[in-house]
Give the backbone structure.
Amino acid sequence: MKMSLGERFRAQFQEPFSSVRKVGVREGQTVADIGAGHGYFTVPAALIVGESGFVYSVEPDRTRSERIATRVASEGLRNVKVLNTGAERLSDIPSETVDLALSAFTLHHFHDAKAAKDEVKRILRKGGVFYVWDRVPGTIIRHGTRPERLHEIAEGFSNFELLAAGRSVRARYTK
């Protein structure tokens, strides 16, 4: 996988392949990378799920979506669909088809967290997982997600696990 200079630096503390495996991405799954940015997790997820799996790369910024599409094409991946939309509007993803939805460092950018949560719940299969990983706002990096917000969006899921709450927060919601 080709990486930019910034991504090579990021990989020193957050290697993308081991990160997506850690959140639960497995061969044959259907995955939604919500707030995909430049595709840092999209491409590794697509390679891990393989030809029998599928990845929806959801990114509201058109320039970033186009970059992901270029990246996916250059890697020769046919199991990725890039969607230029926000987490609140996942209408191009059929209901109850996704095994794992990942929001990595993006929950704090959602315009309407409740609407996004409702859309994620709609696309998840029964037993599917919504995995949230975000930073906590601090004095240097002022944007992020506070742990209490993770509890607020748990309504309607059969299980909620707060996995980490420190400089970053991680949570797993099961439908």
Q: What stands out?
A: The chain is about 30% helix and 25% strand.
